[in-house]
Amino acid sequence: MATTIEVNKQSVKQLLETGKKQKFIIPEYQRQYSWSDEQIQTLFDDIVEYTENNNESTYFLGTIVSYENEYNEQEIIDGQQRITSLFLLLHALYSKLESMFKTDESKNFKSQIESSIWEQDELTAKVKYEKTLIISRVMDDEGNKVFSNILIRGETEEEAKDNYSLNYNLFVKLIEEYATTEPELFYWFINNVLNKAILLPITADSQDTALTIFSTLNDRGLELSDADIFKAKIYNRLNQERKVDFIENWQQLDYDANDANESIQKLFYYYMFYLRAKENDRKTTTPGLRKYYSKDNFKHLYDSDIMDNINTILNLWIVINNHIEIEDETLVFKQ
């Protein structure tokens, strides 16, 4: 079967509006939202500079890699940090417009932002503020609720320290300052965010194809993890009940690995050497992780015992790094 990839340059508004037909989903296996205040400041400053230069060209924001999952949703494989930040920025702009004197410009841009963040009635265009066009399901992340509350109510908890709240509040502050100091440019700033900032959505026909694109972008220098790819591929093969257990096990593995001064990425690396020894692989060249685990149609990655064996590898390093004994741990792999 031929692989299908759709690439279509779109403005922020054009892309986000597609969420009305196929909601954006940040899946369970993704990383938590982690953009810093420095990245938020850089994004804002770049759009300010673009606006003040009265640039006739477009401003490129980067790529979004997704695929249509079985529930007719746009499941985001790469670009979740960027698209999450854009939703926060747009709601912060909307909140500012709500507080301003009503003009033709403010009404226009409020309408455009509403169409980019929330569902609307098809006949009346009435906004359904409780139904956002993006949902985060990142496993074991309280921030999912925070993100949803910000997009629905435009509110953050007092003294909140999560990245969603901190970045949203920073956007609110930056927007207030810019609207005060540059009132004549403020509406042009909003217009540029919505209609001149360009994203390159890459839509794949399957998760495997999307992950291949994700992997290729990683090879070009983006900070993407092999372990994230493995997590997605294992997760995608499980039934719903086993998915829940897998999410909990992966989260605990990640916590325990960090506590032992290791990482899941390293654990897969160590396990690869065990498997190579078991296979009597005497090659002196060490293969890349993705190349190794993808051979024979991901035979080793899809082994039913892989999580147990990875945990056994971790226990070995807990003993070595933390200088403790683990009761009843035999450190023997299942055959």
* Structural class by secondary-structure content: alpha/beta
Strand content: 5-15%
> Main sheet?
7 strands, mixed
* Average pLDDT over all residues: 89
- What is the string of SSEs from the N terminus onward? EEHEHEEHHEEEHHHEHHHHHH
SS element count, helices: 13
- Amino- and carboxy-terminal Cα gap: 35 Å
User: What's the total number of strands?
Assistant: 9
Rg calculated over all Cα atoms:
23 Å
Number of domains: 2
Low-confidence stretches: none
Helical content (DSSP H or I, runs of 4+): 55-70%
Key terms:
single chain; 335 residues; alpha/beta; 7-stranded mixed sheet; two-stranded antiparallel sheet; elongated
Concise overview:
By secondary structure, this protein is of the alpha/beta class. It has helices at residues 12-17, 37-52, 80-99, 104-117, 143-153, 163-181, 183-196, 207-219, 226-236, 240-259, 264-278, 289-298, 306-322; strands spanning 5-7, 10-11, 24-26, 59-68, 74-78, 118-120, 127-132, 134-136, 197-204. The strands form 2 sheets. Strands 1, 2, 3, 4, 5, 8 and 9 form a 7-stranded mixed β-sheet that branches. A two-stranded antiparallel ribbon has the order 6-7.
Outline the structure in words:
This protein has about 325 residues and is α/β, with parallel strands linked by helices. The protein has two domains: about 5-220, no CATH class; about 225-320, no CATH class. Helix content is about 55%, strand content about 15%. The chain has 13 helices and nine strands. Strands 1, 2, 3, 4, 5, 8 and 9 form a seven-stranded mixed beta sheet that branches. A two-stranded antiparallel ribbon has the order 6-7. The radius of gyration is 23 Å and the shape is elongated.
